[in-house]
Amino acid sequence: MLSQVESHLRSDRFPHIWCPGCGNGIVLSALVRAIEELGYDPDKTVVVSGIGCSSRAAGYLDFNTLHTTHGRALAFATGIKLARPELDVFVLMGDGDATAIGGNHFIHAARRNIDLTAIIFNNSIYGMTGGQYSPLTPPDKRATTAPYGNIERSFDIAELAKGAGATYVARATTYHATMLEKLIVAGARNKGFSVIEAITACPVGYGRRNKMGNGLQMLLWQKEHAVTVKQAEKMSPEELQDKIIIGELYRGEAPEYTAMYEEIIARAKGKNR
Amino acid sequence: MSDVVEMARLMQGNEAVVEGALAAGVRFFAGYPITPSTEIAELMAERLPGLGGKFIQMEDEIASMAAVIGASLAGVKALTATSGPGFSLKQENIGYAAMAEIPCVIVNVQRWGPSTGIPTAPAQGDVMQARWGTHGDHPVIVLCPASVREAYMLAIRAVNLSEKYRVPVILLMDEVIGHMRERVVQPHAEEVEVIERKKPAVEPKDYYPYRPGDDGVPPMANFGDGYRYHVTGLVHDEKGNPTTDPQVAESLILRLHRKIYDHLDDVITVEGYQLEDAEIVVVAYGAVARSAKRAVKDARAAGIKAGLFRPVTIWPFPEKEVAELAGRVRHIIVAEMNLGQLKGEVERAVQGRVRVTGVNRLNGELITFDEILSAIKEVTTDAQSG
Q1: Chain A contacts of B73, Cβ < 8 Å?
Q2: pTM
Q3: For strand A168-173 and strand A244-251, is the pairing parallel, antiparallel, or unpaired?
Q4: Is A69 close to B92, i.e. CB distance below 8 A?
Q5: Taking all residues of chain A, what is their mean pLDDT, rounded to a whole number?
Q6: Which residue, of A69, A251, B248, B309, is most buried by count of CB atoms within 10 Å of its CB?
Q7: Do residue A43 and residue B242 have CB atoms under 8 angstroms apart?
């Protein structure tokens, strides 16, 4: 399995920049295993990322990789996919990247239902800039810019994606790495905008300040707080209060953008004749 | 190219940009509507699909610039169009395109500013923003048409220069040219020179995406063509890998400049009118150059040796050409619809060897020929009495 993953990595780029205990490597490896499982041609596979710790993942991958500007990864990816729909495009973003500065692009990519697979590394914090609160920092938690506790409510990425029109929405944690891989595979196979939220640990920027322990302890926290969709069905809202529901959360049917544009081309060419 | 319409017809400036861009091979447009550039988006939406191209109206100006870069990287010639406030929003990603060397064209049909200003009034206030809008040091190419036919020709040239030098090129228009209607004779498709980006001639394993050729420009592989490489806005080595090495950083930025500044003769075009024996020269660009030409004609009729110098490329600034003028004329008048943005560059080039004065307007109205003529007469009188 390791050799499988390794063959898609730019090994000369290691060691990576991530801190000890960071979960980003687990998400990266789930993505590579998923691409292997999907059997995608590496020459036709594109990985686009934004800015932040997670977005450095693109540089470690031996595909067509594009590390863009903060929050704009989905907009760059939209240009690539629309220009050449035959390419398989994955978009890696952090939680602040995707839902704060990139929030507008996120809802519109979902609304268009353009065939991109977005993976959001949710570590509840701005990691690279040193631990400022993000739209995914839970209320009351501490951050460098929320020294007395965060008073903002957080987004539910899955609900946001679904409400905006995404046709595949799923969530897993880095503790559930195999599930994460399977959800990425299913998301990529969905012809439309797919969102996979990966709950990952940032022990240095988030965990330390909120007394959550080291990387291993944060992984165990994920294990204890995650419940599958099936388990959640039998639980009361009170029981679900501090839980993270994992698994496939939503599947919808809607026309895909690039396919619809091909019809526009056919219509315009017909008119010209 | 047979799909490109070839005939003489009445055309609007914004329409001419669309037709020129299509003739140059543009097949992707992403934009966000803003006056007075909107017709470019509307016409692209109509024309592109019939040519197998793609149009998308993005959620904002930032996204439009990002999508254009993505499409270009995937191998499709791409263009966006905007006006003042939208141009401000695009800046970060224009800087990205400069750093990552992605060919693309940005049309800015200038409007009065700052801020929302007078949305449909002509101005030339974005001269410096076109040069220095984004953070850091990087070169740009900026072209300024003075007629509808020239808007057509410069749209082609903008696309060609961006492909040749792998650089974002800005077509800096003003509202007058954008909305003016003139008869345009389009060249036949075979007469249009179309430049394609240089492709790698090596095997994928030997490809260094940022190793320049003799001209300073690295060959560019498109995503999906079998060359897998990394593109980033970070300082990167010849492989495209991020680095903070001070030497790599400096040599990268210097090369980005060299690839343009080593080819100034190719990049810069200027136009002269009655310059041979001119003693008083008016420097003007865009719509103002038309008022200036009439003023020069009238001055000549009144026996004044006036001439017009029109930079078509305003960035890089035609320093050599202006310096040469300074050595043989008595006075330079710079007429522009701002407080003197290009005048500063003219002064820099003439280095005090000749007097430079400005004719400026800031009220959203075009500078008229008689304003420029009065300025010409005034400096003539001054020179005679002095």
Answers
A1: 66, 79-80
A2: 0.97
A3: antiparallel
A4: yes
A5: 96
A6: B309
A7: no
Residue whose tokens read 């559930």? A176
Residue A184 one-letter amino acid: I
Q: Do A79 and B78 touch (CB under 8 A)?
A: yes
CATH number for domain B8-191, candidates 3.40.50.720, 3.40.120.10, 3.40.50.300, 3.40.50.970: 3.40.50.970
Instruction: Determine the topology of domain B271-383 in CATH.
Output: Rossmann fold (3.40.50)
Residue A158 C-alpha, separation from nearest chain B C-alpha, in angstroms: 21
Q: What is the pLDDT of residue B3?
A: 54
A261 touches chain B (CB under 8 A): yes
On whether the CB atoms of residues A46 and A64 are closer than 8 A, the answer is: yes
Domain limits, chain B: 8-191, 271-383
The CA-atom distances, in angstroms, between B183 and each of A2, B16, B330 are: 67, 10, 37
Tokens of A97: 């990247």
pLDDT at A273: 56
pLDDT of residue B6: 54
Beta strands B355-360; B54-57: pairing state? unpaired
Can you tell me whether residue A264 is helix, strand or coil?
helix
**Ramachandran class of B364: left when φ > 0, alpha when ψ lies in -120 to 50, beta otherwise:** left
Q: Is-contact B105 B159, C-beta < 8 A? A: yes
Beta bridge partners of A227: A245
Where do we find the tokens 């809202």? Answer: A237
Do residues B100 and A79 touch, judged by C-beta distance below 8 A? no
Rounded mean pLDDT, A78-92: 98
Domains of chain A, CATH where assigned: 2-269 (3.40.50.970)
> What is B58-110 written as a DSSP string?
-SSHHHHHHHHHHHHHTT--EEEEE-HHHHHHHHHHHHHHHHHT--EEEEEEE
In this predicted structure, the answer to whether residue A4 has a pLDDT above a threshold of 90 is: no
Which residues, 6 or more positions from B60, have their beta carbon under 8 angstroms from its beta carbon? Answer: A104, B32, B89
For residue B1, what pLDDT is reported?
A: 46
N-terminal to C-terminal alpha carbon distance within chain A: 54
User: Rounded distance, CA A97 to CA A84, Å?
Assistant: 25
Enter the tokens of residue B343.
């005048």
Low-confidence ranges of chain B (pLDDT < 50): 1
Tell me if A269 and B68 make a contact (CB, 8 A cut-off): no
| Burial of residue B325 (number of CB atoms within 10 Å: 0-12, 13-18, 19+) | buried
Q: Could you tell me which residues are beta bridge partners of residue B242?
A: B236
Are A52 and A128 in contact, with CB atoms under 8 Å apart?
yes
**What would the pLDDT profile of A180-233 be if each residue is shown by its tens digit?**
999 999 999 999 999 999 999 999 999 999 999 999 999 999 999 999 999 999
**pLDDT at residue A54 above 80?**
yes
Least CB–CB distance from A42: residue in B59, B60, B228: B228
Query: What would the pLDDT profile of B83-97 be if each residue is shown by its tens digit?
Result: 999 999 999 999 999
HSE-up (13 A, CA, CB side) for residue B207: 20
Nearest-CA neighbor of B254 among B216, B214, B296, B202?
B216
pLDDT of residue B4: 54
Output the pLDDT for position A2.
72
Question: Can you say how many angstroms the Cα of residue A142 is from the centroid of all Cα atoms in its chain?
Answer: 23
A197, A170 in Cβ contact below 8 A?
Answer: yes
Do B8-191 and B271-383 fold alike per CATH?
yes
